[in-house]
Amino acid sequence: MKITLIGVGLIGGSMALKLKAKGFASYIYGVDQNLKHLEEAKELGIIDEIATLEVAVSNSDLIIIAIPVDATRKMISKVLDLAEPGKTFMDVGSTKEGIVTIIDNHPNRSRFVAFHPMWGTENSGPESATGESFAGKAGVICDRENSADDALKMVEMVAENLEMHLIYMKAADHDIHTAYISHISHITSYALANTVLEKEREEDTIFQLASSGFSSTVRLAKSHPEMWVPIFKQNKENVLDVLNEHISQLRKFKSALEKDNDELLEELIRNANKIRGILR
Amino acid sequence: MKITLIGVGLIGGSMALKLKAKGFASYIYGVDQNLKHLEEAKELGIIDEIATLEVAVSNSDLIIIAIPVDATRKMISKVLDLAEPGKTFMDVGSTKEGIVTIIDNHPNRSRFVAFHPMWGTENSGPESATGESFAGKAGVICDRENSADDALKMVEMVAENLEMHLIYMKAADHDIHTAYISHISHITSYALANTVLEKEREEDTIFQLASSGFSSTVRLAKSHPEMWVPIFKQNKENVLDVLNEHISQLRKFKSALEKDNDELLEELIRNANKIRGILR
């Protein structure tokens, strides 16, 4: 199967490597604004050919849009204009409402499937891509009823080849759940990094003392703004809602500490420990 | 060398396994309030013999106190009363001021070395212990000038056998730095777990959607209150100081989002990204 990969970074590149290894992709056209990334992707075997959008799409059965969510919003209508019968279009963005709304009345809407693989790292660019990233993780398909059956089947096959398990949701529900489970983690981690950078002026001490616990909590703070500013903006209301709750949860810790309320402190921690039963 | 291990949990147990594997410990006496843990530790080869405090200490060259910091505070004077010439006592607690202050005027103060290995996990109990935990991590020795030279040398040998690199600090400075680098990470992680548990009532969805990013940020929230309530209390002023800064950093994200201030949002993220240059 011939595939167009729009965006040859971490997510797109990792998908390409896996789909090739599985024999699902026979030939991959790479489209990207960043020529250096395209050349790297070709060298790394992620893509076979650098192409323009039009040439790539006209030669492909499947078109994967793997660029930041603001860029997806900007170009998706134009990309869908190129949908001839039999072609399937999918994205991999971390927000969904903003994307599906914009193509709601597009004549080729049914050729598009809104997809979100629940995997990522703090790294970016083709050199971070790895074929073994998605196995065992969740893939979310949103608003399946708005996609043609054959397009849906195609994306389900993609997920199967990535060895992901599928979950189906409304785009609006997806954005609420990801605000809880993914987006707030990033804000927390950024804010934690900024706290430490603000308070701990001795960088050398941070490096020397940093425990595995700190490294793990602050890992996501290495993630780039090019990807995350658009996500926070597109999911603004949900993210603000969760962020307010998070600040209020931190205030409970503050109050328990200030008032030497050991029972409350212990209760807050015991409640948090429940996550142990949910995340193995 | 014969060693007494007071507290046969994650940290003490892991130290014992490594010190045995290295041939540094020839025989280990286990002392613990929890008889089940003592029996498990014996079965796992962490200790060789279950003993009373008095018998264990009288037969040992080195006494390692590896219990929660509130329990250490309560028993440390009594333990130091047993210090005969040539015996070395050390703790492994995550706070230091509260512990060294209490023995400041103890006649055997110089037999004690305040030590903190910068390693831990969200798990506890002897069955979580592993011999390969400390290698490459930092070990902090506090207020070295208050320990006898031979006692200091003994703890330096322990650190060497654990394959840790040593850092020397004042106890007060240690407590400031660990508030930044370890304690606040735990509060953040607890608060994040509570946020998600509060907002996301569908536990099944958390489990299904949880990405590696979320799991990593929330991992520390599995840590037990028995260990962490005493740490937060003993380091109350420093922890509150960092917690206030953290809440104010989160408020900046909130404000940037509410006001659609993209430049501020990007600046906050770019600043957080600096952690990449500090933590490899």
UniProtKB/TrEMBL annotation, chains A, B:
It comes from the Bacteria. Residues 247-274 form a coiled coil. GO terms for molecular function: NAD+ binding; prephenate dehydrogenase (NAD+) activity; prephenate dehydrogenase (NADP+) activity. Keywords: Coiled coil, Oxidoreductase. Residues 1-280 form the Prephenate/arogenate dehydrogenase domain. It holds the Pfam family PDH_N. GO terms for biological process: tyrosine biosynthetic process. NCBIfam families: PRK08507.1. This is Prephenate dehydrogenase.
